Amino acid sequence: MNLSWYIAKRLLLMVPTLLGVLLLTFAVIQFVPGGPVEQMVAQLRGKGPATEAAGGLAYRGQQGIDPKQLEEIRKLYGFDQPPAKRFVHMVGRFLRFDLGRSYFYHESVWQLIVQRMPVSITLGLWNFLLTYLISIPLGIAKAVRNGSRFDFSTSIAVLVGYAVPGFVLGVVLLVLFAGGSFWQWFPLRGLTSDGWSTLSPWHKVTDYFWHITLPVASMVAGSFAVVTMLTKNAFLEEIGKQYVLTARAKGASESRVLWRHVLRNALIPIVTGFPSAFIGAFFAGSLLIETLFSLPGLGLLSYESVMRRDYPVVMGTLYLFTLIGLMTKLISDLCYVWVDPRVQFESLQ
What is the reported pTM? Predict the structure, then answer.
């Protein structure tokens, strides 16, 4: 199977997957209580959030509301149309990458994503870079010193970090270093200080790192264990293979064997995971970390949209993230074949 045919086949298979995800979520939304129509009616009646069925279905809260006014509210949110027609219309907009307009923020979904993107990029980029820049050398060092005191102590350290949830570590860091019961070395919230735009370039950089230290530390602590142990096990597996023994028997130095032979093969499963890890770091950020440090990122936006029944944002971000995830999976498979030519496209089906 050639490259172009494989890519075309994978792209075609993405269509039913993407439609299935959208259809399932859209169907669930129709039965979630407290939709936008119900919330508007509840506000008009001077009460709290609605708790009955969404999608314009009948509920007790409609009592006392003029039917014409109720019909206007349904038309405002598009619920005067049958669900099937609304779904087809939504898919048509998504094909043009029109993600709609938020019910709550009264802005386009694209504008909301762009506004929240800097926070997610900041957390994701530093999480990705620190995890791989520290974990890969550490994993190699652990493999070379397998069974030593260094290997044992670092294993305990990374596994403890993996066992502690990021938001728990974040709370501890806030209490210790952000004005809790001990030291006030770092700010409690935000990505930058007030008046950041008026600072000098050097102070802008220092202020930025001052704000992101605690949230990034909370995120990366649990990521070290997976990459570190994967790197170590991959190196140990390669070190025990026949070609390594042969290279040593021919008189090759240990450093040459390690860096010229073992490294190239051991890093294959790690390198092929770069696209997924890189994109995932941006779009799969920690909701709890963003909430804890008051960082308005994409994770917090998605959560708030679900709680507020802001369906255009829910469906628009779901469509975008699912599409990015499917494309990332394809790129990861292509990287696997590129790094290891022994792998054929048929084996990736």
Answer: 0.72
